[in-house]
Every structure is written in C-alpha cells, then in structure tokens.
Amino acid sequence: MRIGIDIDGVLTDYEKWQIEVGSKFFMKYNKYIVDPNGYDSDTVFGVNKEMDEEFWNEYLYDYVKNEPARKFAGEIIDKLKQDNNEIYIITARYLTVRNDEVGKEMRNIVIKWLSDNNINYDKIIFTKEDKYEICIENDIELMIEDKVENINKISTKIPVICFNAGYNKSCNGKNIIRCYSWYDIYSKIKNI
User: Fold this and answer.
1) Nearest CA-CA partner of 34 in 44, 23, 19, 47
2) What confidence tens digit (pLDDT) does each residue in 120-177 have?
C-alpha cells in the first residue's frame, strides 16, 4: 500500500508545542489561551496577524529544527516499510514551496529533521495546503493527516487516518479513522 504521511500534527505534536510555547510568548501581551481547539496560534490565543507573525518569526526555526518526532513514529514507519508499504511524506510545511533560498533552506531543514528523527521514507513531496490532488497524482491509498480541510477532502476518495487533536474533533464519517498514537495507527492499518 502507498501511504501518505503529514509532518506537522502527525509526526510532531504541533498542537501541544503551539500551546506550550505560545503560552510563554503571548503572556508578554497579556494574551492567554482562548480556544485550545484552534488550529493556528492566532485562533488559540485570540491575537491579530501581526502578533501571530511575531510569534512565528521568533520560534519557527526552533520548532522545525528541534521539536522531536512523536514517540514511536520512526519505529512504526519502519514496520510499515517492512510490511512492503511505500511511505510518502506529504507536507505543506511553511516556506517549503517557495522557489528561492528560503524555500531551499526550509526543505533542507525538513530532510535533515526526518533523518535526525529516524523517519525513513520512499519519497517526500512539498506542497501547498490542499493535499487532495497530490494524493490522487501519486496514487496514495491511505493518508495520515491532522488538518480538518485535508481530512474531509481526501476522505471523499481514500481512507484517512485522522491523528487526534482538539482542532479536528469534528472530523468523522466514511473513510475517516481516528487514531491516538503511532501504535494505534499501526494496529488500524493492519486491519484495513
């Protein structure tokens, strides 16, 4: 089976990182968590776009270089590969689609991060937010994703494992399989 895997929110715990680091950063503006189930920091902390950009300007590189992979992610991906599955990393990581030095740097950071975290894969695809067409073009048979819009759209065509987060609790229905850990993902893939 050809399996697509997202990075932020699937290989990393984006939700937990954003709440923890954002709580520290936004405190200086007396801004606190207003929507723990929001996807982006501006929603979580109820801040304007300028504050949100300031937050990401300060912490983006720390996040993309140093936030570890979720526990057992590499181990399970190796098991999936041993079971003759092909692994496609499909990411809309910020800045990676830019066709300049900044985009190249961010793509190199992602590739190094995957290696440093023992995440083995057959192919990596850097894309914009909408991953539906990428899944179709690459004959992805199962996608592991956390973003609501992608889950809902991709699941109209193929099964999607929804990595549980507060911001995606509304995702349910045909072709949506909710999972809570990488071993949970593995057990559910074995039963597909």
Assistant:
1) 44
2) 999 999 998 889 999 999 999 999 999 999 999 999 999 999 999 999 999 999 999 9
Residue 68 and residue 71: Cα distance in Å, rounded? 8
Rg value, the chain, Cα? 16
Backbone angles phi, psi at 124, to 5 degrees: -120, 135
CA atoms within 13 A on the CB side of 145: 31
83's tokens: 């079971």
In sequence order, what E strands does 16-167 have? 86-91, 123-126, 142-145, 160-163
- The 10s digit of each residue's pLDDT in 54-106 is 999 999 999 999 999 999 999 999 999 999 999 999 999 999 999 999 999 99
Cα–Cα dist 149/124, whole Å: 21
